[in-house]
Specification:
The protein is of the alpha+beta class. The protein is built from 14 helices and four strands.
Length: 324
Amino acid sequence: MFHLRLIVPTDRSAAVRDLLLVEPGATHLVVWPGAAVQPAGDVIACDLAREATSTVLADLRALGLEQDGSIALEDLDVLLSRSADQAERDAPGESADAVVWEEIEEATSEESTLSVTFLAFLAVATMIAACGVLLDNPILVVGAMVVGPEFGPLAGLCVAAVQRRPRLAARSALALLVGFPVAVVATMGFTGLLDLLGLFDRDMLERPRPLTEFIYQPDWLSFWVALLAGVAGMLSLTSAKSGALIGVLISVTTVPAAANAAVAIRYSDYRQAAGSLGQLGLNLAGIVFAGTATLLVQRALWHRQAGRNKRRPPSRSTGAAKSS
């Protein structure tokens, strides 16, 4: 469940209170008249089932609270309450299937911003992957995939496409268009340094590498894997199943492909470099396409559920058939 805290102008306080009172997924409603100082107004708080959150937030935003007051949402890890259990049963749908669009927008906006930290993580991940591809070591390659932060901007592009947010799309695209070239250049320098130290050489690139050669040999199977990863990645974000996201990160070869391209360019093997960049582009395109399609389907299902909720008379008994 979520904890919802609102600062409400006094003239809209009754409307907000009534809205939350008739919402089956809301409980623990508390009103502090005149408690807010800046901005001035009443403070209203309640606990809200995840299934009901997007609908309630849409109604609150329609009342202009984000302009004249505030809407704060906090995820509750532990909540022991019979009333909360009843609210979750009464809220239509299942918690695991609920999409809180405001939560997704906030998360992707933060993670899709080009920053020094983003560039550092991407460069370090690409350098680790360079060690993995030259040593033909899949453990290092998997580690690099987990470290890489590129899924944030990819998710940002998907959300921007569905929600029609050009600024988020531009910010996400900038992070990718700047991040990967910076990481490739940094990895080329890293490769040159280790070559001078006698730890890397061209023979390591040219010798058979049966465990990692798929990185520079893109095919249609690579594209299908990227599609599935895009679906799983969006589902993990929208359902707050962060553990599944780790599996997504280690199933795509964006960072290893960039690393192999950097090493191949450094050693003037442009055939491998072209194949690696092709693999990179294939994965990026597949993830964005599948992620966007997944969000579109989820949004359609959410609108359908929201329409049913509006037609349903408010009653605490509607959740009797829902499992606890």
